Each structure stands twice: as C-alpha cells, then as structure tokens.
Amino acid sequence: MQALVSRLMPIIQTEVGFALLRGARIESRDPRQEVRDFVQEVFVSLLTKGGKTLRAWDPERGRSLDSYVRLIARRQVAAILRSGKKSPWADRPVAGDELERELPETHGDVSATKLESIEELDRVLEGLRARLDERGMLLFEMLYVEERSVEEVMAATEMTRDAVYAWRSRFRKLVAKLHDERKSA
Amino acid sequence: MSEASFELDPVDPIGAALGRRAVERELDEREQEWQAVARGELDVDEAAKQRRAAGDDDATIERAIAYFRPFDEGETESLVDSLLARVGEVAAEHKAETEVEPEGQAEVVPLRRPDPAPAPAPEQKHDPGSSGFWWIPAGLLLAAAAAIVMWWVWPPSAELSNGNGQQIARAELPAYVLETDGGLKQLRSDSESGSQEPGRHRYRRDTEFEWILRPKIDEPGEVAVRGFAFVDGSSAGLPLAALTKLAQIAPSGAVRIKGRIEQLDLEPGRYTIALAVGRPAELPSDAADVHEPAADAAWQVRRIDIDIEE
Question: Where are the domains of chain A?
C-alpha cells in the first residue's frame, strides 16, 4: 500500500491542490487538513469494492495510468465539492429552451477529424463558454471533461435520461454551428 | 459516488475531443512551480519565491504551500493506515456480497485470499460485526493487502518469464529504421513547379501503401506498434486504432504496415504519422507522449509526413 500511495500521490495531490486553489474551499477549514481529506477520499474511491475503479484501468483504452488516475481524482473532487452546493437549477425547467431557440433547423454534423486542430477546438470551446449557461457548462464538464455516465449526470442534475440525451443532441448542433460560423467568417 | 462508466459515448467523438482539449488548456494554465513541488522536484521555498516574482499574493502562496507540499512520513503513514482500515472493511463487505451471488454472476474477487490462520487462542474474542480480517495478525494483513494491490496495478509481465517460470532479462530494443514506399510518384510538372514538398508522401485514399519498421539487428523478443496521426502543425494527435490491424510482425522483429490509405480512417489532409514501436506493455497510450517523448522512453517513434488527396 505504501508503494501504491507513493506512486499515485503526486498526481492525486496535484489535482486536489489545484481544485482547492482555484477557490473551491471551505473557509473555516485548515487547508492542510482539507488536502489530506480530499486525497484520502480519492484513494478510497480507487480502492473501494475490491479496487474495482483502479482495476478498471486498461491502457488499451488510450489512457496512461497517470491520466486515468488524474481523471478519477478530478471526478471525485468535483463530486465532493458539488455535494456541498445547492443546485441552482433545481427549480428551473429541465429542457434547455434558451439553447434550442438559437439553433436554426438544419446543421450538418461535424466529424471529429475536422475539429482536431488545436485552433479549431479552442475557438469552439470559447464559443461554448460564451453560449452555454451555467447548467450547460456543468453538463459539458460532467459528460465530456469528467467523462461521467448518463446515469451519474441524471443523479447530479435531477434530469431525466431523455432530457440529458436531448441536451447532448443540441450540444452537437451548437458545436456544428460554431464551427460553421468560424468557416464563414 | 455511483458506478461510473469509463467508456466514452462511441458516437460522440466531437464532445470527447472538446473535453480533452478543455483538460489540456486547464493543465496548461496551471502554475508549473506547484506541480513541481507536488512531484518533489522543486523546493517549496523556491516555488514560493518564483510565484511571488510572478505576482501572486502572499495569501494565495500560503494556501498553495499547504496544498502542494508533499506529504511527510507521518502524513503518509496516517494515510496508509486509514486506507487499510477503510479498504479492509469494504473488502470484507465485498467478500460477503460476492459469496451470496449465484454462480456465474459473481463479481471478480480479490486475486488472492489470505491464508487461513491457525486456530485462535482460547481467550481471543472477536466482534462479529468487525472487519472480516480480524483473525489475521496485523503485519500479515498489511503484507497481504500490499501484495493484492500491487498485483492489481502491476500484473506480472509475460515478457519476463520464459514459460517455465524462470525469469529472463529483458533485452534493450535495437534501433529501428523506417522504410517507406515513397508515396505516389510525383509528375514532372509537380517537381518543376515545386508543388510537392520534399520529404512528404503523397497518397490518394485508394492508394496502396507499405511502411516497414526494421530493426538494425534481429529482435526476437515481442514487439508491437501503435500509431498516431497529427494534423499538420498540430500537437493534438488521433490514435490510429485501424493501423494495428494492418501491421504484421516478422520473427526478426520487423513490423510491416500495409494496406490502403483509406483503411487508416483519415480525412483528406496533411498529417504527420507517428509510429511508436516497442514492447507491447510499454507502448505509449497518449498522443501527447508521442508528440514529446521522454528521453528515457522504452519505445521508439518514427515519423512520416503524408498528404492524403481525395
């Protein structure tokens, strides 16, 4: 266990540290104790249920061990921090009405290879940040940055499965629209 | 945290690419000094000095020191003890859950079970509600837990065994050279106008291609290849899953990659194809590792610039 902790500690402590440093902290707590607690929770999430999460790492899926552990740490820290916040959209309608109104009827799909240049990706990301509301950014973060399952997103946001799928469909159309806008500019 | 799926939606590669880029940007924005402190590569005081020079205020620096200063021996021991206590309890519950499941439906259980202990001394008492490992001496439990966890993370490599249970030394990989077919022959008019850049291979989607990675001396050990495509001028790489199916490995260790360009699943455009060759378990998984390989990487990368036309 000592060897495992030594191996993974720098990655996990880095993820926890930057999440806390970016302002997500509880004012009354000792920062050193905060980082100890969060680091422990990340390790537990990796090792619980017979180490199921850690054993799920498969390099054939395209991630190094470091990258995989970084993802798990990011997820766990985000989940803990979110659990301490009241959802700002609990009383709002589930459908993303404001997003839907922006989109014209037809937009072609955009293949991933056309969006792979860093410049293109950055432009679309900036467009998303300007267009998505707080809930939209949360869904983007959970689905595509933290790579959460639809079930986890449903549980965190109190959305139905259909609503999550519908948002995802609108998200793809928005990405296509942002890409087209750039090409025609 | 509920059960997580680690599979990306197979029909949503755009979202995945955007998510990856968002992570890359966030990583790029991180202060390098604190990352180095967490890795034990930079002294805390030196990091603080550099961040102060960069304009960070004292309160932020103080918090960062608290967050990133590596755990000392006492903190690490305390963490290990807590984990063993919590993982041990959960392992016992997990063991109980898997034993009641119908045959054929049980989850994967720990790879080794602790050896049965000798009969406890008459005065030994236990709480039925406590950890399932109560009858194992603490030192043995620690060793067993460490062995189980180590097996999970670093399974024994088949390369180190000759099949008779004897360990053999792993030979260093010889240098590989890349031989190519040269691409489509350029027309006289192309060369005169200078439209074809030297060193680039021109293909059409239906062109046959053949690339060979050849070791300078025969390499009888197990080797494999993994490919990545970098869009011209970009550091964001695509793994070429299809390339593995086109590769054949000769007994000499030579790797031949042969097929039609369209089998690489790339749109027309300009690419740098990076071919990483090495032992199967040591090949890089991330395009970033191939884009800027570490000096001590166990694998080798050879690159070819290609233009794919319609």
Answer: 2-83, 97-184
The torsion angle over the Cα atoms of residues B7, B13, B17 and B22, rounded to 10 degrees, is -60
List the single residue in A47, A75, A172 with the smallest CB-CB distance to B83.
A47
- Residues B228 and B290 sit within 8 Å (Cβ to Cβ): yes
Q: Which CATH architecture has domain B176-309?
A: Sandwich (2.60)
Reduced to 3 states (helix: H, G, I; strand: E, B; else coil), residue B308 is strand
Does B4 contact A117 at a Cβ distance shorter than 8 Å?
Answer: no
**Interface test mutation site (partner A, options B3, B11, B21, max chain A beta carbons within 10 A):** B21
CA closest to B31 among chain A residues: A18
* Cβ–Cβ below 8 Å for A116 and B235: no
Gap from B275 CA to chain A (nearest CA, Å): 15
**ipTM over 0.85 threshold:** no
Q: What's phi and psi for B95, nearest 5 deg?
A: -60, -45
Alpha carbon of B291: minimum distance to chain A alpha carbons (Å): 14
All structural domains of chain B with their residue ranges = 73-116+131-154, 176-309
User: Residue A114: closest CA among chain B residues belongs to which residue?
Assistant: B267
pLDDT tens-place values along chain A, 185 residues long: 888 898 999 999 999 999 888 865 555 678 899 899 999 999 999 998 888 889 888 877 777 888 889 999 998 888 888 776 533 333 333 333 334 333 333 344 455 455 557 888 888 999 998 899 889 999 999 999 988 889 989 988 999 999 999 999 999 999 988 888 766 66
CA distance B41 to B36: 5
Q: 0.80 cut: is pTM over it? A: no
